[in-house]
Specification:
alpha+beta, Rossmann fold, Dna Ligase, domain 1, D-amino Acid Aminotransferase, Chain A, domain 1, 8-stranded antiparallel beta sheet, 17 helices, globular
Length: 613
């Protein structure tokens, strides 16, 4: 068994690896950027090394600094986690060349499966069914457009080096192809340093089914059954579960065997995931499930597999990297119950799921009967430099419904402040009739749209209770002769004036400056009413403010230019997301404070438009 390991990652996955390594008696070393100096993974590790500035390209993506940190700490091995350099064959090779152990597959396997087009060709040769599409080297826009026309719309553009929903665009019609291709290529170049794409036929009623595979250095490969990751928003997984609803034994055997064949085709070692797209219009059937890609690393959603199999996949990784055979044979693995996982993000569903950045003054997650994997604690700073996921909440139960109910309860009892989270959105998704009945496909969230957004304000009952606690002398009012049983007052709910009817006798002895209302996974701040100045500006005045701190990656207008309602003005990038600002009405650009490559703060005035007429 390894004696020491360096984790070349941060946040939740770094903490997850440290937890298992500690249980196995393995010494751990962490790396951190300027932004993560006080991070939880730094505090948990036995030793930590600073490797650079906050941006990932100046720290967590610097292979030479990470390898130097491993040597400095005396680590025998490097565990890459997921994201960052985890699927970088060059980094894996550099680790080997430095005389260190790579906790992952051989660099050749990463190379073979790392590019989606090459992987699909390899799978076709191995007899694994693949989605119809275009895998050619000719990347001229006119050629890609011609191929898309031949495939038929809707068509999916995918970055060959993509992952995590990045570099993917669904194109509904030929007229939309050129703009979607340009946007996809730009995002792919920025995220992966490779703007090459492939095309796939968009599958009707698609479901995302993936199989966890594991190989060792002795030629053994097993699967640990399937997961269903169909509930997605913009190709990013939202809720994952295992096993897949509606998967019969015959189809499971076929899909899992195809996954094992895929892994054997590249002599796979370590944890990997074979992802399939299924046409679920007539249920899950083996002849309607096609290979999409392979992730040559541990997946974000690996806990659901751990929960139904009783296995620690990080332990498996560390044992395999040590040269041990797989801990279990295929016939020793079985499915026990059901597991579900939700990804809790610091983002605001009411504002288009924009990242929410700042200090976690309150961070309390419902924990009864569920597993919480997180890399932050109360008081932590959520920066704009990394993915906004702050926790994973995982529930396990004897049935799908039992797991779902546990998860809903945990999210409903969660409270995070002042940052916004998607907890309320997750509750709405989990309780949606189609999800509850396992009527799943990857378009469910997009179709439901605003119906899945959490309420903009608390219930009247919660508001009344909060208002009563803010009133002065609330208890004394109950002793006054003919005291009113109801009062109506104006308060500020997250800065907006609201009128609340409440019972003043239910208040506290002292007036409060404000009170937090936690309901349905959401938190609001209620404060006594006070006059608020009318200063500032918003889009209705033609003032376009930056909704978050970030970097300007495209400016498509100039000062003095006439614009039309809905026209794209500029594109902002933060926390690996792109956000475009569009004109709220017809008018003329009178002020432009944005340049490509520039950094901006939240609330900065970027564009001013004078309304036409």
């Amino acid at each position: 068994m390894l004696k020491s390991v360096l984790i070349a990652n941060r946040g939740e996955i770094a903490c997850r690896v440290i937890k298992t390594a500690r249980r196995l008696g393995i010494r751990t070393a962490a790396v951190y950027s300027d932004a993560d100096a006080d991070a939880l993974h730094v505090r948990l590790a036995d030793e930590a090394v600073h490797i650079g500035a906050a941006p990932a390209r100046e720290s967590y993506l610097l292979a030479d600094k990470i390898i130097a940190a491993a040597k400095q700490t005396g680590a025998e091995a490097i565990h890459p986690g997921y994201g960052f350099l985890s699927e970088n064959a060059g980094f894996a090779q550099a680790v080997h060349d430095a005389g260190l152990i790579w906790v992952g597959p051989h660099p050749a396997a990463i190379t073979a499966m790392g590019l989606k087009d090459a992987a699909k060709k390899l799978m076709q040769d191995a007899g694994v069914p693949t989605t119809p599409g275009y895998l050619g080297d000719d990347q001229r826009p006119e050629q890609l457009k011609s191929e898309a026309d031949a495939i038929g719309y809707p068509v999916l553009i995918k970055a060959v080096a993509g992952g995590g929903g990045k570099g993917m665009r669904k194109v509904e019609s030929a007229a939309d192809f050129a703009d979607s291709l340009l946007s996809c290529q730009r995002e792919a170049a920025s995220s992966f340093g490779n703007d090459q794409v492939l095309l796939e036929k968009w599958v009707t009623n698609p479901r995302h089914i993936e199989v966890q595979v594991f190989g060792d250095k002795h030629g053994n490969v097993v699967h640990l059954f399937e997961r269903d990751c169909s509930l997605q928003r913009r190709h990013q997984k939202v809720i994952e579960e295992a096993p897949a609803p509606g998967m019969d034994a015959e189809t499971r055997a076929a899909v899992c065997q195809a996954a094992v064949s895929a892994a054997k085709a590249v002599d796979y070692v370590g944890a990997g995931t074979i992802e399939f797209i299924a046409d679920g219009s007539e249920g899950l059937k083996a002849d309607r499930i096609w290979f999409m890609e392979m992730n040559t690393r541990l997946q974000v959603e690996h806990p659901v597999t751990e929960e139904i199999t009783g296995q620690d996949l990080v332990e498996w990784q560390l044992r395999v990297a040590s040269g041990e055979p797989l801990p279990k044979r295929q016939d020793e693995l079985s499915i026990n119950g059901w597991a579900m996982e939700t990804r809790l993000y610091a983002e605001d569903p009411a504002k288009g799921f924009l990242p929410s950045i700042g200090r976690l003054d309150l961070f309390e997650l419902g924990s009864e009967g569920v597993r919480i994997d997180t890399g932050v604690t109360q008081g932590a700073e959520i920066s704009p430099f990394y993915d906004p996921m702050i926790a994973k909440v995982i529930a396990h139960g004897p049935t799908r419904e039992a797991a779902r109910e546990k998860l809903v309860k945990a999210l409903d009892e969660s409270a995070v402040w002042p940052l916004k989270t998607n907890a309320g959105f997750l509750v709405k998704a989990l309780t949606h009739p189609n999800f509850a009945a396992a009527r799943l496909d990857t378009g469910l969230i997009a179709r439901e749209g605003d119906a899945l957004l959490p309420p903009a304000r608390p219930s009247d009952e919660a508001l009344a209770d909060a208002a009563a606690s803010l009133t002065q002398g609330g208890l004394l009012a109950g002793f006054r002769l003919n005291a009113p049983t109801h009062a109506t007052g104006t308060f500020l709910l997250d800065g907006e004036a609201v009128t609340v009817t409440y019972d003043p006798r239910n208040g506290g002895e002292e007036p409060a400056e404000d009170v937090l209302i936690a309901e349905g996974g959401q938190v609001w701040r209620l404060a006594p009413w006070r006059a608020v100045g009318a200063g500032g500006a918003d889009a209705s005045d033609g003032a376009m403010l930056s909704p978050m701190p970030g970097r300007i990656i495209a400016v498509t207008v100039a000062a003095g230019e006439a614009v039309t309602k809905g026209q794209k003005l500029l594109t902002l990038e933060a926390m690996k997301m792109e956000h475009s600002l569009v004109a709220p009405f017809d008018g003329t650009i009178t002020e432009l404070n944005a340049s490509e490559g520039g950094q901006v703060n939240e609330g900065a005035l970027l564009v001013k438009i004078e309304k036409a007429g």
